[in-house]
Structure formats: structure tokens, C-alpha cells
Task: inverse folding
């Protein structure tokens, strides 16, 4: 008498849920509530309230310094006044007090792109292993990785900084001695920090999607003699593209908007400092020049908006992946 083979992913789901089936009735009820007219009105109100401060900041970025310091943006009809000096000062000025944002913009790209690609690649491989490769202690290891999400980022900064000083800085200095064209102060510590901090959430989100891939597809590939590498690159990656795009959006936005990690691991030098660090400095030592911050904030929004809108078709599918079945 033959029995149907079970996969590690199926067994894991059965252990967590207590059963191998989903409650489709409950899923339909939740979907109906979330798509009702009341839910739509509530979502619209939240969106409007959330947008008001951004709209006020946008108007303030075009107002002169004198009006910004004496009136609020909501009095724009009573105290009209528009100027492009804020954007000219931020983008075109080359003075020491207000240097151009171009170098910092490039630094943010050099930090955010590898800081997104590295955890995404490593996390996708780890998620596949946890979902479809059986080894002793895999479930406990996955729980440990999941639990790392609750560790405060500030708690790990000092140990990671010490590791960076002891291991990464000598490597950077050695590479600089061999190839003088490569600067001794590089992005490597920042890349490593963002990769470490991003991996737990990336692995968890991708695991939820990859474990839902039908087992028949994986078993058929194994019967045909496909290795784990072939299964991962030819089956998992194409099917998991919506989830990968959604996770990439989250990770990129988090790295792009980060200040704490970059400020600590960049050493405060302009060569590797990101745009967020420069934004924190634009207001001046006493906060007297905060009109620059309003304009530079919208300059920094350009890349995140491009990334989001270029990948938005995958966004909803990736968020809902693995949440329901059937």
C-alpha cells in the first residue's frame, strides 16, 4: 500500500496550522469586509489625512524663507509668495554651507542598490532551503531567524561596528594598498550592515511565498534529475517574481531612507555619506535654514517614486501571495 509523499514545506504548514487545509470561508469573509464600501471610505479618509502633511511640505518648498518663518503653509492665500530659490540653493549651490546634493545622491544609490540586491539574493536562497530542503533542525533554525526580527536595531549596532573595525577595515586597507584607485573608506561596512539587518524579514516574507508553490512542480523537477540550483533558478525565481519585487520595494525604501546605519558605518565622511545624512545637516547648526530641507526632501523622493511605480504591478500580488489559497 503506497502513501503520498509529503514535502518539508507541507509538513511545516501542517505543524503551524494544525491542519493541511485553509478555511476558505473565513478568507472570503475577510475579503468581503476589506472590499466593502465602508472600508473604502475609511481607506480614503486615512489616505487624505496621511497626504496633508506631505502636501504642506510641498507648498513650503516653494515659499520664501521670510514667509516660512512667519506664516504657515495653510495661509498661502492670505500670504501668497512662490520662489525657486530653495531648489536652486539645494541643487546648484556649491558653497561649503550648502554643497550640491549630486555626490550624496550618488552615494545613496551606491548604498541602496547593493543593500537591496544582497539581502534579496541571500534571502531567496535561504527561503528556498527552509521551504523545500529537509535537514535536521530546519524548523528550529527558521524560528530563530524569524525571532531575529524583534531584536532592536540599536542593540546590534555596537557589536556590528566592532566587527566592522576588526575585520572589514583591514580588508579595505589591504585592497587599497594593492589597488590605490579604490578608496580606503568604502561602502562595504554599510552594505554588510544593511544585509544583516534586512535578512530576517526578507527570508520570512519570501519563505511564505516559496512554500506555497505546488509540490507537484518541485517533485516533477526532481524526478527529471534537476538539482537544487536548477530548481531554484529555473522554477523558483520565475514563479516568485511578484514576491521578490515586493520585498525589493520594502528593502530599497528602508535603505534609501535610513540615517542611523549609514551615519554610524560611514564614519561621517562625505565620500560615502548618503543623502539622508546631508538632509539632516541642511537646516544649519541652529535650525535657521530649514527652508532648504523642504526642497531637498522632495529631491530625495524622486528615486523611491520611480522604484515604486516601476514595480507597482507586482506589489499587491506579492503582498497577498501565500495569504489565501483556492
Result:
Amino acid at each position: 500500500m503506497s502513501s503520498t509523499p509529503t514535502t518539508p514545506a507541507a509538513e511545516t504548514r501542517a505543524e503551524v496550522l494544525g491542519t493541511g487545509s485553509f478555511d476558505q470561508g473565513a478568507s472570503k469573509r475577510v475579503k468581503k469586509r476589506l472590499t466593502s464600501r465602508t472600508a473604502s471610505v475609511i481607506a480614503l479618509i486615512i489616505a487624505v489625512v496621511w497626504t496633508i502633511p506631505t502636501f504642506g511640505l510641498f507648498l513650503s518648498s516653494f515659499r520664501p524663507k521670510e514667509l516660512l518663518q512667519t506664516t504657515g503653509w495653510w495661509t498661502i492665500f492670505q500670504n501668497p509668495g512662490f520662489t525657486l530659490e530653495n531648489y536652486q540653493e539645494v541643487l546648484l549651490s556649491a558653497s561649503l554651507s550648502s554643497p550640491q546634493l549630486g555626490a550624496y545622491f550618488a552615494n545613496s544609490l551606491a548604498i541602496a542598490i547593493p543593500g537591496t540586491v544582497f539581502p534579496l539574493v541571500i534571502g531567496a536562497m535561504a527561503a528556498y532551503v527552509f521551504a523545500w530542503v529537509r535537514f535536521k533542525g530546519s524548523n528550529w533554525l527558521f524560528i530563530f531567524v524569524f525571532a531575529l526580527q524583534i531584536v532592536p536595531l540599536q542593540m546590534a549596532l555596537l557589536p556590528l561596528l566592532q566587527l566592522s573595525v576588526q575585520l572589514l577595515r583591514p580588508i579595505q586597507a589591504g585592497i587599497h594598498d594593492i589597488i590605490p584607485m579604490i578608496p580606503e573608506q568604502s561602502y562595504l561596512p554599510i552594505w554588510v550592515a544593511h544585509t544583516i539587518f534586512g535578512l530576517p524579514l526578507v527570508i520570512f516574507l519570501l519563505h511564505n511565498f516559496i512554500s506555497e508553490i505546488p509540490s507537484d512542480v518541485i517533485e516533477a523537477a526532481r524526478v527529471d534529475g534537476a538539482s537544487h540550483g536548477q530548481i531554484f533558478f529555473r522554477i523558483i525565481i520565475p514563479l516568485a517574481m511578484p514576491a521578490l519585487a515586493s520585498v525589493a520595494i520594502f528593502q530599497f525604501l528602508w535603505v534609501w531612507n535610513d540615517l542611523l546605519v549609514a551615519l554610524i558605518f560611514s564614519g561621517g565622511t562625505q565620500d560615502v555619506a548618503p543623502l539622508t545624512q546631508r538632509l539632516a545637516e541642511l537646516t544649519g547648526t541652529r535650525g535657521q535654514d530649514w527652508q532648504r530641507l523642504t526642497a531637498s526632501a522632495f529631491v530625495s523622493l524622486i528615486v523611491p517614486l520611480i522604484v515604486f511605480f516601476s514595480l507597482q504591478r507586482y506589489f499587491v500580488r506579492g503582498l497577498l501571495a501565500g495569504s489565501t489559497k483556492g
Remarks:
- Residues 59 and 94 are 25 Å apart (CA to CA).
